[in-house]
Every structure is written in C-alpha cells, then in structure tokens.
Amino acid sequence: MTRNRTPTEIEVLTDVTQVILDRLPRDWTGRVTREPSFAEVRPDLLLEIAAPTGERLTLAVEVKRNLEPREAPGAARQASEVAERVNGLPVVAAPYPHTMFAHYSSCSNF
After folding, report:
1. What is the full per-residue pLDDT of the chain (110 aa) written as tens digits?
2. CA torsion angle for 72, 78, 84, 89 (degrees, to 10)?
3. Contact, 66 vs 97, CB < 8 A?
4. CA 110, CA 97: separation in Å to the nearest integer?
5. Contacts of range 95-100, beta carbons closer than 8 Å, 24 or more positions apart
6. For residue 103, which of 16, 11, 3 has the smallest C-alpha distance?
7. Of 35, 93, 99, 100, which has the highest C-beta tally within 10 A?
8. Nearest residue to 93 (alpha-carbon basis) of 3, 72, 83, 85
C-alpha cells in the first residue's frame, strides 16, 4: 500500500499562493512577500491583492504542514496578529489530511 507523503511547508506555501493568484480576475494583481519580518512576528507569507480600481487587500498567511485541531487556535492567533499589523485578513493554510489535496481555508469571517 502506497501512502501519500505530507507536503513540505514550502510546497504548501507555493500551492496556496498559486491557488489564490490563479483565481484572481485577469486585470487584478498579486504581490507575494515570503517570510517578511515584523519585530517579534514573522508570517510565512503576505499576499497583497490589488484591484484595477486601486483598492488593495493583504492576506497574512500562516502555513502548517500538519494542522491538528488542537493547534488551529494557535495558528489562527499567529495569522491574526500579523493581519492586525498590516491591516489585512488572516489566513491559515494546511493540506487537507485525508486526500493530501491542497485544501485551504481562511481563519477569518469575511
């Protein structure tokens, strides 16, 4: 029996970036900053999305290779702390455990 391997954090980071950017309308842009530093806080990814009207939104993404239910609040807290600093939305990204399909969800309520 062959087992699917758990993706690396870099693979999850690359996948979530691609999933989001691929779904933007053609005239929108996305700018990626990996592991920016803010004093004591270091998010895995900041993704700034810009509409043609000039409106911008920043996603503060915390990536986890494995995300156990007990770890979800801490990951959400990390993403939320960064999101507050950049006036953005927090996102936690992790592979879906049952199929290893890249399934990503936001930890914020839109």
Report:
1. 444 678 888 888 898 899 999 999 999 999 998 877 665 677 788 999 999 999 999 999 998 888 888 888 999 998 999 899 889 999 998 886 544 434 444 444 43
2. -50
3. yes
4. 24
5. 95/6, 95/7, 95/12, 95/65, 95/66, 97/66, 97/67, 99/4, 100/4, 100/5, 100/6, 100/7
6. 16
7. 93
8. 72
Q: Which two tokens stand for residue 94?
A: 């992790």
* Residue with token string 């806080």: 41
Cα–Cα distance between 45 and 43 in angstroms, integer?
5
